[in-house]
Amino acid sequence: MRSRPLIAGALLALCAMSPGFASATDLLQVWQAAREHDPQGQVLDAARAAGAARREQAAALWRPTLGLSTSAGYSSADSRMDGAQFAAPGFGHSTGVSFGTSVEGGTATRWALGARQPLYSPERRAQQRQLSLAADAADLEWQAAQQDWMLQTAQRYFGLLLAERRLALLKQQQVAVDRAYTEAQDRYALGDQPITDSHEAAARARGLQAQVLAAANELELARQALQDSTGLAAERLQLQAPSGQLADGALAPLESWLALAQQHNPLLRLQQAQAEVAAAEVRKHGLAGSATVELVAQASRERLGGSGDYGTASNSQSQQMVGVALNLPLYTGGWRSAKLAEALSLEQKARAELERVRLQLAQQTRASWLALSSGQARLAALEQALVASRARLDATRLGRQVGDRTTLDLLNAENDAAAAELALLQARTELLQNRLQLEALAGQLDLPGLQAVNAKLQP
């Protein structure tokens, strides 16, 4: 199933290399390219897989374990027994008998096969709970990272769009200022205007030149950031800008968004899971001194053979055992109590961090909601400001031609009109980003949410 996204990403990269691709670049295409190209996706998937392995670790804690050990080498042994009683058929009974064996540099072999099945262990039960919570936390961390990745991609997309428009507007201003500068010089030469108009136009032209250079650097950085994360040639992309009606009906009340955030925000749920993990750590060390019961089975054999003081000798021993083992720790040198004190402090820290994240989440949700709720009214005001600034620019140009306005007035009007156009575009992108941010805070940001924002974009 993964072959389809790979093929789609390859086709997208091939299209990006062709000149005709510039007319078909939207936010969804950039997101798809980022998913296929950015190493962050592999990092997130690997972290999630590592977290999922903790569930298997938790289940394995109560499964039987089997172990085999073997050894071989050279060994020497000397044993002697005095005062023993000996009895054998045909030999009668003898007392005060001595037995002795000796092996010098003989061959020693040993093998042992053992199996253990936990039956009762409160500490192991707490550890199992801790591993399961850690696996859940890994899933929540992956979900939060996916949302942040999507937001970051949208931010890079709109950042590049704004950088392109900013540079284009500055270049337009630069052309207008250069034209005004030339006109001011010509009028000064004719004696129609004072030299101050030429100086003002020259100063504005040099200032715009510096702004154009800075905007070009900003655009290059924005292009490189998007290209690094998507693999697309950013300079060949024609990004789509938001336009038209951006709001989708009435915005739900703030209380509803706050409730959603408290219930579904992945970062908050992650912090809750981490607090529960810390609590499980406390229980684990609190139960470390509890008795444990295991079902055990073992089979072993030892053999030593060779020559010694009494000739050829061989000693062998075999054992088999099945039973129940009871383990009861009596004294750990203070290690358990020290670990318990550490776990208690870490649990308090996790609980405090949980409350801190809860407060921050409420503040961020409120800020995004307020920005989104007032965003449409802000756009309307900026649209009117743009219309007014353009009308002022036209009137100033006419006044400049008839001598009622100075060159400085015209330059200021040009600057205000460009600033109003850029401010409107920035407000539009911020409104869409606030929408994505609010959905992410509520744990609702997914591909359909990105598609809804993408539908607001037009070439």
TrEMBL record:
Coiled coil: 340-367, 408-435
Endpoints of the signal sequence: 1-24
Gene Ontology cellular component terms for the protein in this record: cell outer membrane; efflux pump complex
MF-aspect GO terms: efflux transmembrane transporter activity; porin activity
Name recorded for this polypeptide: Transporter
Record InterPro entries: OMP_efflux, TolC-like
Compartments it resides in: Cell outer membrane
PANTHER family to which the protein is assigned, alphabetical: OUTER MEMBRANE PROTEIN TOLC (PTHR30026:SF20)
Natural source organism: Malikia granosa
Family affiliation: Belongs to the outer membrane factor (OMF) (TC 1.B.17) family.
Assigned keywords, A-Z: Cell outer membrane, Coiled coil, Membrane, Signal, Transmembrane, Transmembrane beta strand, Transport
